[in-house]
User: Fold these one by one.
Assistant:
Number 1:
Amino acid sequence: MTEVLEQLRAAILRGDFAPRQRLIEADLTEQYATSRFVLRNAFTRLADEGLVELQPNRGARVRETTVAEAIEITEIRRAIEALVAARAAERITSEQRAGLQALGEQMIAAVREADTLGYSELNAQVHAMIRSIAGHTSATRIIEQLHAQMVRHQFRLSLRPGRPSVSLPEHLAIIEAICAQDPVAADRAMQTHLSSVLEALRSG
């Protein structure tokens, strides 16, 4: 079941299925070479994660996250990710510092080359690495579930003209504070960044 769950989750996050699109059991059991029992268990797990909604007598469909929900989720993320950034600043090693700084350099290059898709992927890698450095299991679980629910909003936001140029210095400030082992500055830089994301979501 785990393999089917992971494949279906990845397909939804990639945008293989549109928001509100019905997930046809007959098609998916054939596509993933699985049983209806396994598929329905996967649907239940994805419903718990907020990616799918189960409709009585109609099966499952991809859940659409509204802008209002995306704003609420980002407000929660701002508090939790600030905590994670502060903890990462306290725990970072020399090797991790080099890795995080290297990602920052790649982000600079992506903006310089107008590689929007590449920048979006690096953005995700930076946040994932900060969570890894922090090693806060409960916070990571919450953040990853919240992220899954609004990944489409984040992707559209990353493609907005000029957005990477706004986002880049915010990420560099987060990286600098964590690498300097300054938890107060790391907390503040992460809150500043996610406040900027909130402003962008609210402006449409």
Note: The chain has two domains: 2-62, 67-202.
Number 2:
Amino acid sequence: MAAGDSLLSPSVTRTLLSQVAAGIQKKLPNDPRLAELTAREREVLVQIGTGKTNAEIAAELFITPLTAKTHVSRIIGKLGVRDRTSLVVLAYESGLIAPGQALGNA
């Protein structure tokens, strides 16, 4: 920066930001089963898919363990699955997580 001015022109900045946003959108799974989940519930589902407990999810996302448990319960209800194991399967099937991300390898 020179004298507080930006190094990029506003048009270049807009182009760059739109390309970054497009790249992020391409990386998000488009599985219709995930449509009802909030962004936070998706974050929690990723954590579940990588094998984390409610306490570990809470620490990772800076929430309380009770809040993590509530998110897990709501996700199970919204997705109509039986348990956490089913959530792990769904996270893999939907592309939300990929092989190799499990158990702290993320």
Note: The chain has a mean pLDDT of 83.
